């Protein structure tokens, strides 16, 4: 199998407080890793592969012009999904919806088309699915992949696009043990924090549920922020106080700043969030789970898309509250404090911890005193 003899990574050692400093990778021939789907996720993954010294083969239905920066950095363009699969030992996909994944694979109502990934897969190839999609559809594709003597790995990623771009994402992985061990070093280039999720398909369920909880928080945070604003509470104080309280969340820590700059977290769109809620509702119907909360959240996102557009950021429910109250949560003084804000992440005692950068952080001094 190509992957068994092909992947050799050395000096891939992650410290809790720093990225890996050096990576040496040998691959049988240039371009043996392929990526289909060059949205924000796909471009970030390809960027990590390039930094590691690989020359990934890439393809997207938007055409070669959509990948000019990646091609300038050493990526190799393929003319179709089939052409990419014919060249690669590992094929990665990162696409928005289940229908997009099926189309990329070449699955049609009448069978397998001539230009998709399935038409070009060579025996021994590994397919790694980074998309957040319908796990039943993924299982269907998995069966087609395995018919061709290939292996399938489901590895949706979570943790924020900013973290993916610097290779510190979390991957939720479903695969047989042998295949997992073969591709783990490759996945680690983008997501060194890997969680095995048992049976193939369970990782996608976990990822969908993660985004569903984020959607609830995005809908709730605007309301509490507006109550604070109307009560005269300083917004930066609110941000800092909430971070050290029982009301804290990943969304609060990483998306508050996107309200202050008026972008409402454009890295993940309201349409993508609505898609994940819909996938979760489908699972709920299958298992007879009532969706009182998430049914309301789904309606809120439908309203947001109708009012602000499908490409509006996933934190856009906050703007619904601002518009209803005719009050902007951001003010010049607070926005200025978040102007250069960014973040990274650490794992502390098994939990994801946000590390804030380029912002006054009163909790830093508290931590020093406690330690």
TrEMBL record:
Residues 204-320 form the 3-hydroxyisobutyrate dehydrogenase-like NAD-binding domain. SUPFAM superfamilies: 6-phosphogluconate dehydrogenase C-terminal domain-like, NAD(P)-binding Rossmann-fold domains. This is 3-hydroxyisobutyrate dehydrogenase. PANTHER family: 3-HYDROXYISOBUTYRATE DEHYDROGENASE, 3-HYDROXYISOBUTYRATE DEHYDROGENASE-RELATED. Residues 32-195 form the 6-phosphogluconate dehydrogenase NADP-binding domain. One of its GO terms (biological process) is L-valine catabolic process. GO terms for molecular function: 3-hydroxyisobutyrate dehydrogenase activity; NAD binding; NADP binding. It comes from the Eukaryota. One of its GO terms (cellular component) is mitochondrion. InterPro entries: 6-PGluconate_DH-like_C_sf, 6PGD_dom2, 6PGDH_NADP-bd, HIBADH-like_NADP-bd, NAD(P)-bd_dom_sf.
